Amino acid sequence: MSSSSIVARNISVEFPIYENSHRSLKKAVLNLTTGGRIGQDAGRHAIVKAIDDLTFSFTEGERVGLVGHNGSGKTTLLRTLSGVYAPVRGELKVHGKIASLLDVSMGLDPDATGFENIYLRGILDGLKPARIRSKIDEIADFSELGDYLNLPVRTYSSGMMLRLAFAISTSVEADILIMDEWLSVGDAEFSIKAAERLESLVGKASVLVVASHDPKLVARVCNRKISMEHGRMIADEPVLPPVESEGPLVSHTAQLPH
Is 166 part of any domain? Predict the structure, then answer.
């Protein structure tokens, strides 16, 4: 069985914006806000170069932290690795099962019950019915939603919905884990339980790729740091291990609404 890895060669991701003209005020404003990453295709449409000619490899055992200001391309890269976006140029090869925690609520049907959503998300993740059934009790217990799982998700508060989504998303181990910031869900007590579960999932993954604005989290979790700017990788360096352990990552989490 081959090792888990992600290998990219000269990949670019672009988004068309609008009909372009040389004197466009909109183009001038976008140039200022994106660092000049506005180009033009053969049909004279403006395009944003969100990812610009990246070549890299993430191999087994690596915990990669993506850092950079908003708009630097971190989230676009994560979505590309997860299969949400396809490169317009270059080659991207992924070996291993990916779990993406970019939007844990994605795929929930508000008119379906909690139990029905467990099945729906399992199907979307490519799980067989028997595998989904084997996970139901574990997901229900972890979410602590009790009888609410028999009600439509539209009756849930945002915090309840995130509990269910988090319990589902983290119920299956994966070879490659993709995250945009570290997730925390619910009140303080549930947050601790969620953080411990997330750390366990990270520990079992062969490859981790996480974007973060928190240098303490990157120092604690990652062994490789990549700095991004204007869709390019401007630095790639090892991360020195922290001097001492700090326990579960609760204080460094990006708190979701509840």
Answer: no
Mean pLDDT on 178-196: 84
User: What pLDDT score was predicted for residue 251?
Assistant: 41
Q: Which structural domain, as residue segments, surrounds residue 64?
A: 1-17+48-96+206-241
Q: Are the C-beta atoms of residues 46 and 16 closer than 8 Å to each other? A: yes
State the pLDDT confidence band at 218, using cuts at 50, 70 and 90: very high
In a domain, 13, yes or no: yes
Write the CB contacts of 21 (distance below 8 Å, at least 6 apart in sequence): 27
pTM exceeding 0.70:
yes
C-alpha separations of 98 from 18, 42, 75 in Å: 34, 35, 16
For 248, residues 6+ apart whose C-beta sits below 8 A from its C-beta are: 192, 195, 196, 199
**CATH (domain of 8):** 3.40.50.300
The share of the chain scoring above pLDDT 70, in percent, equals: 81
For 125, the token pair is 């993740």
In a domain, 143, yes or no: no
Alpha carbon 159 to chain centroid distance?
A: 19
Shortest CA distance to 114 belongs to which of 66, 166, 78?
A: 166
Predicted local confidence at residue 61, as pLDDT: 96
Judge whether 241 and 211 are in contact, CB under 8 Å.
no
- What interhelical angle do 114-124 and 129-143 show, nearest 10? 130
How far apart, in whole angstroms, are the C-alpha atoms of residue 42 and residue 50?
18
* Alpha-carbon span 94 to 116, nearest angstrom: 31
For the cut 50, the answer to whether the pLDDT of residue 51 exceeds it is yes
Residue 186 included in any domain: no
Domain count, the chain: 1
